[in-house]
Write a structure and sequence with these properties.
Blueprint lengths: L8 E7 L4 H12 L3 H10 L1 E7 L1 H13 L3 E4 L1
Antiparallel strand pairs: 1-2, 1-3
Helix pairs in contact: 1-2, 1-3
Length: 74
């Protein structure tokens, strides 16, 4: 059976890192959430955005990594 190529990716925050404020700012930029919602999302970690095309998910992961976080598109 042919293997289906994955077309939708989730951006997952694995680790916040040392610069939590920068990561919160990056999450706000990515999601459009307010400060409190973005802070809560960063603190609980996990999925930031779901069902994205690979290119868009990769850009968000790079943005989070630039802020000092560890993130993946899966």
């Amino acid at each position: 059976a042919p293997v289906e190529e994955k077309t939708e990716f989730n951006v997952v925050l694995k680790e916040v890192g040392a610069n939590k404020i920068a990561v919160i700012k990056a999450v706000r930029e990515i999601t459009g959430l307010g400060l409190v919602e973005a802070k809560n999302m960063v603190e609980k970690m996990g999925t930031i955005k779901e069902g994205l095309p690979k290119e868009e998910a990769d850009k968000m992961v790079e943005s989070l990594k630039a802020a000092g976080a560890t993130a993946v598109a899966e």
